Amino acid sequence: MTAVPPGDGSPARHDLRATARAVLDRAVDTYRDHPAVAAWLDGQRARLAGPLRIAVAGKVKAGKSTLLNALVGEQIAPSDAGECTKVVTWYRGAPYSRVTLHPRDGGPPVGLPVDRRDGALVIDLQGTRAADVDHLEVDWPTPSLRVATLIDTPGMASTSAEVGERTVRFLNPDDERPSEADAVVYLMRHLHAADAEFLSAFRDRGVARAASVNAVAVISRADEIGGGRLDAMASARAVARRYRSDPVLRGLAQNAVAVAGLIAETGRTLRAAEFTALVELSRVPREDLDAMLLTADRFLAPGPGRPLGGEERARLLRRFGVFGLRLATTLLRQGTGSPEELAAELVRRSGLHELQAVLDTQFVGRRDVLQARSALLAVHRVLADVPPADGGRLAAEVERVFADAHEFAELRLLSGLRSGLVTLPPPMAEEGARLLGEQGARVPARLGLGPAPDAATVRAAALDALDRWQEHAENPMLTRAAADACRVVVRTCEGLLADRRA
Ligand SMILES: Nc1nc2c(ncn2[C@@H]2O[C@H](COP(=O)(O)OP(=O)(O)O)[C@@H](O)[C@H]2O)c(=O)[nH]1
Ligand SMILES: [Mg+2]
User: The pTM is what?
Assistant: First the structure.
């Protein structure tokens, strides 16, 4: 994710955050005689002021930890099956490195050693069973974690029902309850019924109803689609395109991207020794190498005249996978000459950049509304759990913000259009969704302009859109629901026009 200036660049950006903050302040005051509740709400204030929280979810072995490392650019999330991979783990930007275990029984947090082996962080629970851990916190000095805290989850539908259940409880504790995460990246190797079920459980309900606003789907381990052939990524992108137009998925996630997380992770953390080993591998006669790289077993098989040592081949296989080895050796044969060049090409082909762009436009670019929504849901939850004597006014205020804040109206309409609940004639539907922020919430993206248009261009485009949508709103041929939808878009256009940069 790229660094962004304060505020998310969407129109009217300060208002909703300030409103949510005011509601939280009032809630803290309302609960001043309930220290525990007030403290929890105070934590929500800190959350609102802090970075966005993005959870990485999906089945066990979907490639979550690997993808998280690729996004961070370091190997800090352990992959595969150790005890600590069964625990929800928060990765937060910090000026120092620190690992903290929060016990399930509410006992005091315990510091764990920060142990790096072979470039990767090794987390040792020091005898604590995963089941006794509420969550781990890893503070890490890396720029990519300053924009968003990433939360690795153990995965659902796992062999251990309890681990799966923990993920679901974490992301979607209950109907109408806030989640610890503001948004979720959901990994799936193909869209299975269980995935759809999970995504629909995570999407907003009740007061915040706005399906799909905070979920992005990733077709993960994309290199394995199509049997690891060199055109595997093209096939995976075709699958992602299909998912983007799939009516079920459209209602559940804002976008679908194909990513080969392993290639991305290795590209971002490539070591000099690995480059040297790959160069040696790429010098094996083409036919012999092709035969060796037919399967993982063949690559590992011992025998006379094999390149590199057996252990080194095993290590390379873990880092690249069969597809990655084929890709890397092909690139080297075609003239890729330096570790930097190879690393960049692996990342480029992995699909990571596309995912980063989607996270930037859909999540980081909507930070204000996603965080405000989490804050309001938190107050809503407290009011339901611990009804205060005079909570009626506060409850009404929360309802009113959800109903009146134009940002939430936009999200509701956007998801209505995506799921087919609201229909507009095709050319209008497309433009309307764009104006509502489907391609990104920032002003230029909404107006379909390039990245840095001048003020006069923005103003002209906004005026033009406003005229057109005012006309649509008065079109007597439209259904009532469609006319209502047009009026929401009109308000959006007014906001774009009033934006001080326009
Ligand atoms: N070929 C390939 N293997 C991957 C990819 N991502 C993860 N893996 C492997 O799949 C296994 C599970 O990955 P992990 O990230 O631990 O999955 P998690 O359980 O969802 O966190 C590991 O052996 C990874 O090396 C990928 O993009 N391509
Ligand atoms: Mg994992």
Answer: 0.87
Confidence band of 432 (pLDDT split at 50, 70, 90): very high
Confidence of residue 500 (pLDDT cuts 50, 70, 90): low
Q: State the sign of the Cα–Cα–Cα–Cα dihedral 317, 320, 323, 326.
A: negative
CA of 139 to the centre of ligand 2 (A): 18
- Is the Cβ atom of 223 under 6 angstroms away from ligand 1? yes
Secondary structure (H, E, C), 309-364: CHHHHHHHHHHHHHHHHHHHHHHHHCCCCCHHHHHHHHHHHHCHHHHHHHHHHHCH
Q: For residue 376, what pLDDT is reported?
A: 92
* Ligand 1, atom nearest to 58 Cα: 20
Separation of alpha carbons 143 and 71, rounded Å: 11
pLDDT digits over 106-118, tens only? 899 999 999 999 8
In this predicted structure, what is the pLDDT of residue 502?
A: 44
Instruction: Check pocket membership of 351 for ligand 1, CB cut-off 6 A.
Output: no
Task: List the domain boundaries for the chain.
Answer: 50-263+363-367, 270-350, 387-498
CB 417 within 8 A of CB 424: yes
63 lines ligand 1 (CB under 6 A): yes
CA distance 452 to 444: 7
* CATH 3.40.50.300 describes domain 50-263+363-367: yes
Q: Is the CB of 262 under 6 A from ligand 1?
A: yes
β partners of residue 185: 56, 216
Is 10 strand, coil or helix?
Answer: coil
Query: Helical H runs in 173-285?
Result: 193-202, 232-245, 247-252, 261-268, 272-282
Given a contact cutoff of 8 angstroms between Cβ atoms, the answer to whether 372 and 20 are in contact is yes
390 lines ligand 1 (CB under 6 A): no
- 136 - beta bridge partners? 89, 101
Q: Return the residue whose CA atom lies nearest to atom 22 of ligand 1.
A: 80
CB 267 within 8 A of CB 354: no
Q: How far is Cα 196 from Cα 183, in angstroms, rounded to an integer? A: 16
